[in-house]
Amino acid sequence: MTRVTALILGLSILAVGCGSDSSPAGPSQGTTTTSTFTVPLSPSNEVPAIANADASGSGTVVIALTVTKDGAGTITSASANFQISVAGFPAATRVTDAHIHSAAAGSNGSAIINVGLTSGELAITNGSGSISKNGINVPADRAAAILNNRAGFYFNVHTGLNPDGAIRGQLSEGAFDPGTTIPY
Fold first, then answer.
1. What is the pTM of this model?
2. Most buried among 14, 61, 141, 172, using CB within 10 Å?
């Protein structure tokens, strides 16, 4: 009988130990959020404004910035997806790169997030083209800075004719969707 009692007791302890925790999530639960920026790009926003053959160009970038926060609300990781569309460029235009830069409107700043384009990867056919770049790593501190001050950042597209940037838009100029928060 002692063995049967010990077996039942052991199985009971095992069953309790394997049970699921049904306690509600507390403040330590983290979240993942995606914020979307739709930014119009114009050569007149470049500093100085573009006045050469690229002056007829324009574009739009849609940036989906996904951040993961810990229970305290601190961003622990981030990534971005970019959908870049350009139009109105001369047929021979060669797009060389695209970045998010740190600076307010009217000022130039350092590139802080590189989209990772290679020269010519965004093909211009009949003056237009588009490309998606997904899963670009964004340092957590830079993601936090962008979300806390969109007006302090701009996106621009660089061309062979304008290596410092041909079309530009402040992240605050476009539509902004703060997205939804998903607990993890």
1. 0.82
2. 61
Quick: pLDDT tens for 38-63.
999 999 999 999 999 999 999 999 99
The string of pLDDT tens digits covering residues 128-151 is: 999 999 999 999 999 999 999 999
Helix (H, G, I), strand (E, B) or coil at 10: helix
Strand partners, 167: 157
Q: Is the bond into 90 cis (omega within 30 degrees of 0)? A: no
Max Cα separation, the chain? Answer: 95
- Note the residue count of the chain: 184
Residue 111 contacts by C-beta under 8 Å, 6 or more apart in sequence?
99, 100, 101
- The closest of 143, 148, 134, 76 to 113, measured between CA atoms, is 143
The residue type found at 103 is A
Non-local CB neighbours of 151 within 8 Å, separated by 6+ positions? 104, 105, 170, 171, 172
